[in-house]
Amino acid sequence: MKILVTGDAHLGRYPSRISDSSRELSVGQVWEASVDWAIGHKVDAVVLTGDMADNKNSYFEAYSVLKRGIDRLVDQAIPVYAVAGNHDFDVFPRLVEDLQVEGVKLLGPRGSWSRAILHTASGEEACLTGWSFPQSHFRASPLDTFPVPNTDIPVIGVVHGDLDGGQSDYAPLITSELQQQPVAVWLLGHIHAPKWIPRPGAGILYPGSLQALDPGEPGPHGPWLITISQGGKVTATQLPLATVRYETVEIDVSGLSDLDQIESGISRNLQRRTEVLSGNYPALRRVIYRPELTGKSRLYRAIKRQQWTQLTHLEIESRELRGTVDRITPNVTPYHDLAEISGFSDPPGVLAQWLLDLKEARIPDELRDRAVKAIRHVLRAKAYAPLGSHEPDPASVEQLLIEQGELLLDELMSQKIHE
């Protein structure tokens, strides 16, 4: 039994950090490619795990794109089963109703579980049981009302929810509770990062967003193929049909002697990465890079101060794939031997010892308290008011102290060299 699974398409949105609006980069294009794959490989069903539409403003765009794909699937006798998510809780049920197409089943309307039986051409059967969002927020677990199936055929659970998210507003679910149910596999929506958790217990799949929409969704994207064997074994395979990818690339700049060499190194690294991606992911048309500079460098201050704006105009091509740079993150550290410098009692020596203490989590209480007080004062400024009240995060405070301390040490050592 072969089932194509996708969700979180958010039809109506377009990938960010892209200047043009080419149709081949749209979510709709990837949805159509997924339909092509399903028909070409004769899958037994297609399952949509919620948030296929983005919101009410995208109703007509989602309607036309979804209808074309669903019509083609149904024409090929491939049924479509779906649940509504928190973004399309009101839009998707209306879409299904307006489509007026047999072979499309909305599972769990209005927050109540419902079932449907899938009959395959080979005579196999499966029971699909699903739950849809009744409103945009739902703080209880859908499993609280889950009707335990009493059947000998494989059970496939379909629900849009927040897995292991604690006190979530979006139908919180717990991995252990899902795996304890007599279900062959759970197909989930809501989280945009693809994730497959195989047995023990029921398998759990987040197919992730169909098309990557922003840098927070790195790596390959696309629908997934779920295969259920006669013995009940479940396998999951991602189909990387997405045309857009966001990628962070670490580039070690240790040993490079000037900024020109670093810029050349960035270009060479991204060119190689683009060639690898174009060979391994033929559907890709655009990759948006965020290079991260790492290593120890004598150019620490220059790297930290450099704006790198010229590299945002860099374009790299390999076959049909084009790469661009969104931003560069300088995570380098100064080329200084802290242990050696800390052996002196001068200001660089005292600062070097503080940095060693910071990196080993031995932070002086006075230094920590003063830093927290200063950062809290900044966060309470009017400019930060729209973000709400936030207390300084301890890990962020420590990292900020280390970064600023390294900048200061680099400056002190530079002055010492020139004396």
Q: What's the gist of this structure?
A:
With 419 residues, the chain is of the alpha/beta class. The protein contains 10 helices and 21 strands.
Structure description:
- With 419 residues, this protein is of the alpha/beta class.
- It is built from ten helices and 21 strands.
- The protein has helices at 27-40, 59-75, 91-99, 175-179, 259-280, 300-305, 338-341, 347-359, 365-379, 394-418; strands spanning 2-6, 45-48, 80-82, 104-106, 114-119, 125-131, 155-160, 162-163, 172-173, 185-189, 195-197, 203-206, 224-228, 234-238, 244-252, 286-294, 296-297, 315-318, 321-325, 329-330, 333-334.
- The strands form five sheets. Strands 4-3-2-1-13-14 form a six-stranded mixed sheet. A six-stranded mixed sheet has the order 5-6-7-10-12-11. Strands 15, 16, 18, 19 and 20 form a five-stranded mixed sheet that branches.
- α1 runs parallel beside α2 (59-75) and α8 packs antiparallel against α10.
- The termini are far apart.
- The relative contact order is 0.09.
- The model has no long low-confidence stretch (mean pLDDT 90).
Name some characteristics of this structure.
419 residues; alpha/beta; 6-stranded mixed beta sheet; 10 helices; elongated
Strand and helix layout:
Blueprint: E1 2-6, H1 27-40, E2 45-48, H2 59-75, E3 80-82, H3 91-99, E4 104-106, E5 114-119, E6 125-131, E7 155-160, E8 162-163, E9 172-173, H4 175-179, E10 185-189, E11 195-197, E12 203-206, E13 224-228, E14 234-238, E15 244-252, H5 259-280, E16 286-294, E17 296-297, H6 300-305, E18 315-318, E19 321-325, E20 329-330, E21 333-334, H7 338-341, H8 347-359, H9 365-379, H10 394-418
Parallel strand pairs: 1-2, 2-3, 3-4, 6-7, 7-10, 8-9, 10-12, 15-16, 16-19, 16-20, 17-21
Antiparallel strand pairs: 1-13, 5-6, 11-12, 13-14, 18-19
